[in-house]
Amino acid sequence: MAGLVVSFLPRRGFPRFLLLLPPLLLPLLIFLLLPSWGRGGRYDPTWESLDSRPLPPWFDEAKFGIFIHWGVFSVPSFGSEWFWWYWQQKKKEPYVTFMKENYQPGFTYEEFGPMFTAEFFDANQWADILSASGAKYIVLTSKHHEGFTLWGSKYSWNWNSVDIGPKRDLVKELATSIRNQTSLRFGLYHSLFEWFHPLFRDDAASKFKKQQFPNVKTLPELYEIVNRYQPEILWSDGDGNAPDTYWNSTAFLAWLYNDSPVKETVLTNDRWGAGTICKHGGYFTCADRYSPKHLLPHKWENCMTIDKKSWGYRRNAQLSDYLTIEDLIKQLVETVACGGNLLMNIGPTHDGRIPIVFEERLKQMGSWLALNGEAIFSTKTWRAQNDSITPGVWYTFKPKNSILYAIFLKWPSSGTLTLGEPKAVLGQTKVRLIGYEESLPWISMGEKGMMVAAPLLSFNTFPYQWAWTLEFTNAQ
Question: The pTM is what?
Answer without folding.
Answer: 0.90
